[in-house]
Amino acid sequence: MRTKLVSDLCLFLKRQPVIAAVVHGLALRNGLLISSIFLCNNVIHAYVAQPNFLLARRLFDDIPHRNFASFSIMISGLAKADQIREAASFFINLRRSRDEEDDHDCASIIVAHAGLIKGCGRMGDFRTGVQLHCSSFKLGLEFDSFLATALMDLYRKCGEIEECKKVFDGSPHRRDSVIWTTLISAYLKNSKGEAFALFNKMVAVGVWPTGLTFSTMAKSLDEPCKLSQAKQLHVWMTKMGIIPDEILALGLVTMYGKCGGVDELARLSGLGDPGDILLSTSLMMGFLKNGFSLVGIQVFREMIRQAALPDGHAMAAAIGAFSDQKLLRLGEEAHGYSLRRDLISNSSVGVALIKLYSEFGLVQKAKAVFMVKVEEEACFTAILSCYMKNGILEEALGMLKHRINGGWRPDAVTATVAVTACAALAATSAGEQVHSLTIKLGYCDYLSLENSLITMYGKCGDLASAEEIFGSIESTDDISWNSMIDCYAHHGFGREAIVLFYKMQVEGFKPDDYTFLGVLTGCSHAGLVEEAREFFKKMKAVYQVEPKAEHWACMVDLLGRAGRLEEAFGLAATVGEGSSSPLMWQALLGACSIHGDIKLGSLAMEKLTEMKREKYVDGLVVLSNISAAVGAWEGKAAALAAMRQHGLRKDPAISWVEINGRIYAFSPNDQSHPELFCIYWKLEELRGRLEEMGYVAETQVVHHDTSREEREVSLLRHSEKLALAFVLVATAESKRPIKIMQNLRCCVDCHTVMKLVSKIEGRLIIFRDSKRFHTFEDGNCSCGDY
Description:
By secondary structure, the protein is mainly alpha-helical.
């Protein structure tokens, strides 16, 4: 009766270890614990499984006649909980007990020893592991296969592959597939090629691989170039008659997903249960990674239909697929499902939803998701990118400043996105703050961040700081060189861009299409026609870089601005027929605007309309301006009528400046600024001083059929002039450079005024329009009036 009760209690404990304390109390009341070491060990095992080492230790100490299994259970449990010191202490006591007892349990010694070694492996405690290896020799256990496997696993996790190989070579159990699998797993961490060769050797010597071996090997095949090896492995498995279990099926699906074996993925799709969340998620991820988004979505929908509950990882992947396929309604349904199942708390799901709504321009919905995840760094990065993508730069900057003022400590990725946002808005102050923060946090060697800082300082007009960052990078990459070349190009320093082009090759970097675009842009802004021709010829002939539409457009722009409109038209006509990009015709239309050529401008506009399949708003604006410039008011009326007919509107000019970390924006004829009286007073004062220097307003740039006096007033109230006057009033005592940004091209009259004001006020003026920088100093401009 007592024996049956002990047996029933032990069986009950194995099924329900959480009620160990109840069984413990019941056994004490019936006097069973003292008489049954078997029951005591089962209760200790249940306590260890919870884990509750305090009660386990109390019971262990109360046992009057402990055996080796008692020690083994405590050692294995403590080792699994990474309490190595306590486990080692028990092991020492176990060895003493072994010396004192004649009737010892060798199996318990081995299990305890192996458990302690595995714990050292998890903790990366190489030193203790080596000591235990030595003790295995003293105990005469060095030839045990179970212990050898534990030692190999220890050395594998500590990165000691040679030691792992020595244990393997010294083991007499080299016909054991487990030992071979452990060695293969060790090589996978450092040399995947050798791991595959080792697998072939294992088969060659007649050791039969198990499902675990194939599952381990599948992890090494994770690139498209290894698809043939993946198929070979699968063939071996089939020939050996190994039927995939859940783990092996998951390994095969993951392997083919990473190797690009879409056909094999399709065949494996019926291998497991659609309700298996891990297998279905891996299958979906495989299709999505290889560009089969719709198939991946179908797998996801089948998961839902089978009542398999996707985790955050699967949900984030599905939402990403909905975004790629422009399936907003499904994305919103996934949002609702995530809320119901509390998956929204998963950072990956939050990021995916923000990106989804960003793709559709639904900024407020993206912001609502972010407000739930406001503390998550990844979500902050996503919302910052969302604001930038949708042109809400001021709000992005405000959020960034609020974060900085709150003691923000970003990771390197978020800091890079923040720097990019500052570059887009030319927010120098915020950019410098983020830069200082990254230095304090030790991100100085993060290359992507350094490259973004080059671009940021370049777009903020601080070319010297961009050069300093570039010069400080210890190990540049091609993006570093391209970023610096682009900075020179947009500041009009074409020759400096060319020098850097040759220098990067000396340093061992090969120019790509971005490099050539930067050099050609620099040549275009500096009027280096012949140099640009030479580079354009060398692109394909010497560097094997195929010119893209952007490169052709750059050449058309260069020729057009140099007055060679017919040649520019011929170049655009030659390439434009086979290109879907309207960039060349846009460039030609801009050149026609400069030189007042209505005929070619009209032809360019026709080509633009054909290519875009719709009326091109910027093109109509330019055509309207060309017509007005030469007095062809009927042509202007026709262009404006076409705009009204298609519901198109011209983008208004916006100029902005940053003073004491705050952005001030201006539009033409602005009446909303609180300092409006001072601004207009300053403009009138400047006009008088400019006229004394011989300035005459270039009223031909005002494309309205009005009197000269009205045109002069309109010119005086251009947004860039208002911004200039405001800075002069707000910083009257300062001699710091004036930085003005604008979303459109600078007009000829504003360019002339800024040159003269730089001489009158003795201030350096840095002006960035939609295409390039102009640096005005002492009455001259860096563009050379080109």
